[in-house]
Amino acid sequence: RVRIPLPVSNILWEHCIRLANRTLVEGYANVKKCSNEGRALMQLDFQQFLMKLEKLTDIRPIPDKEFVETYIKAYYLTENDMDRWIKEHREYSTKQLTNLVNVCLGSHINKKARQKLLAVIDDIDRPKR
């Protein structure tokens, strides 16, 4: 057995948690269809994940917790709010933003609004190319 000093252990936990949270968002971004109930279940699953993490580690605040919560909650935004949200949240990839818009199509965003939001994402992504 090798004892890991607490500061090293905390750094390892922080990186593992951050990676897990980033992976959750990436997984949510791969969803093709999702109802309001499905998003509610995502929130519930994430809350369960956080509760288990809090028992395993003393790291507070949980790294990238807001990153996951914000992405899940963005599903409920109206067209105008989502337009603003997309412009303000550059921490998400183009793929993650595009999928969010596509998943909202039909539930509370129409095709015209979808095209407008995808154009906003494309405009943000254009300088990166």
Overview features:
single chain; about 130 residues; mainly alpha; 6 helices; about 70% helix; about 0% strand
Termini separation: 49 Å
**Shape label:** elongated
Q: Radius of gyration from the CA trace?
A: 17 Å
Helix content: over 70%
Instruction: Output mean pLDDT.
Output: 89
Instruction: Report the biggest beta sheet as strand number plus sense, adding barrel if it closes.
Output: none
Descriptive overview:
With 129 residues, the protein is mostly helical. The protein has 2 domains: 1-75, no CATH class; 77-128, no CATH class. 71% of the residues lie in helices and 0% in strands. It is built from 6 helices and no strands. It has helices spanning 6-29, 36-56, 65-74, 79-88, 94-104, 111-125. α1 (6-29) packs parallel to α3, α4 (79-88) packs parallel to α6 (111-125) and α5 packs antiparallel against α6. The radius of gyration is 17 Å and the shape is elongated. This is VPS50 protein. Residues 3-122 form the Syndetin C-terminal domain. GO terms for molecular function: SNARE binding.
Topology:
Layout: H1 6-29, H2 36-56, H3 65-74, H4 79-88, H5 94-104, H6 111-125
Helix pairs in contact: 1-3, 1-5, 2-3, 4-6, 5-6
